[in-house]
């Protein structure tokens, strides 16, 4: 990426176009050589700065690209976070609902006089009365009966 080096004459004509001839005519050879040496050093420094500027610009563009990529990723992750937050809230609501149902069933079982008495309810099919009081099939049957009783 380094630019081709310019001669002192080119540098002088580009940067001192109006005064280059006057400088060379008014200075003696030794003074002119000193001036051209200093001009060459200045030219070299300018070229080095231009190379440095090009590197800084390339670094800036790379960092800008990284920042844009990070911003896009952040936006995507925020959307996913929002969706997961909603799902978490829904699951917590379901958990609360199920915990209430479980607590109700647990208190019903504890409040029954005994598991055997709970199993010998009038009208309960024999295969259900043999099941434990907290068996899902038996609990479902009892819930159906309770719902029917509420409707009457």
H/E element sequence: HHHHHH
**Fraction of residues in β-strands:** under 5%
Rg over CA atoms = 45 Å
Largest sheet: none
Number of strands: 0
Account of the protein in words:
It is a single chain. With 152 residues, the chain is mostly helical. The radius of gyration is 45 Å and the shape is rod-shaped. The mean pLDDT is 82.
Topology, please?
Blueprint: H1 8-15, H2 20-26, H3 29-111, H4 115-119, H5 126-129, H6 136-151
Highlighted features:
mainly alpha; 152 residues; 6 helices; single chain
Provide a compact summary of the structure.
This protein is an all-alpha fold. Helix content is 81%, strand content 0%.
């Amino acid at each position: 990426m380094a630019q081709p080096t310019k001669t002192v004459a080119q540098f002088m004509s580009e940067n001192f176009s109006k005064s280059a001839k006057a400088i060379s005519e008014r200075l003696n050879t030794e003074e002119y050589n000193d001036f051209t040496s200093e001009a060459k050093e200045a030219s070299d420094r300018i070229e080095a700065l231009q190379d440095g500027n090009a590197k800084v610009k390339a670094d800036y563009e790379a960092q800008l690209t990284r920042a844009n990529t990070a911003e896009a990723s952040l936006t995507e992750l925020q959307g996913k976070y929002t969706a997961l937050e909603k799902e978490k809230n829904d699951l917590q609501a379901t958990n609360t609902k199920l915990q209430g149902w479980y607590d109700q069933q647990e208190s019903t079982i504890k409040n029954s006089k005994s598991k055997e008495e709970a199993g010998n309810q009038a009208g309960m099919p024999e295969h259900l009365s043999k099941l434990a009081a907290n068996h899902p099939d038996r609990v479902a049957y009892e819930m159906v009966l309770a719902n029917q009783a509420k409707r009457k």
